[in-house]
Design goal:
Elements (H helix, E strand, L loop, with lengths): L3 E2 L2 E3 L12 E3 L1 H6 L1 E3 L7 E7 L5 E5 L15 E5 L4 E5 L4 H4 L6 E5 L5 E7 L5
Parallel strand pairs: 1-4, 2-10
Antiparallel strand pairs: 3-10, 4-9, 5-8, 5-10, 6-7, 6-9
Length: 125
């Protein structure tokens, strides 16, 4: 099955961003995972909340292909605490996490519920 695409929520330089609800993590996202298209790993910050009754692991997959020459360092796995846990994951190194076609892949442990929000950090001025 194809991964579910989650779009960026851009952070606003010299401004503000009202908190966003994010994308609900349901059985489809757990089974298929998430893809972030046109990814800019060094400017990507992922917020994951966990509403499941147990701790859950969120995995950002190591890249494939020649552009990810540091992929041998492996995936990045982050534990999100049970019930009301919230973790911010990233930014990321392109050379380790970028998939072919400028994508990032995110997977969830079985039974994960909650939300995922993908923020794009603004460029420095």
């Amino acid at each position: 099955m194809a991964r579910t695409a989650v779009s960026y929520t851009p952070l606003v330089p010299n401004g503000h961003l009202t908190d966003v609800a994010g994308t609900t993590i349901d059985s489809t996202l757990v089974t298929n995972g998430v893809v972030i298209n046109d990814a800019d790993p060094e400017r990507t910050l992922i917020r994951v909340t966990n509403t499941a009754g147990t701790d859950k692991v969120v995995t950002v997959k190591a890249g494939t292909g020649g552009q990810s020459w540091m992929a041998g360092q492996g995936d990045s796995a982050t534990t999100v605490a049970a019930t009301s846990g919230k973790e911010f994951i990233g930014p990321f190194t392109s050379a380790r996490f970028q998939q072919q076609g400028s994508k990032l892949y995110v997977d969830f442990a079985s039974g994960t519920t909650g939300t995922i929000t993908v923020f794009k950090l603004p460029k420095a001025f």
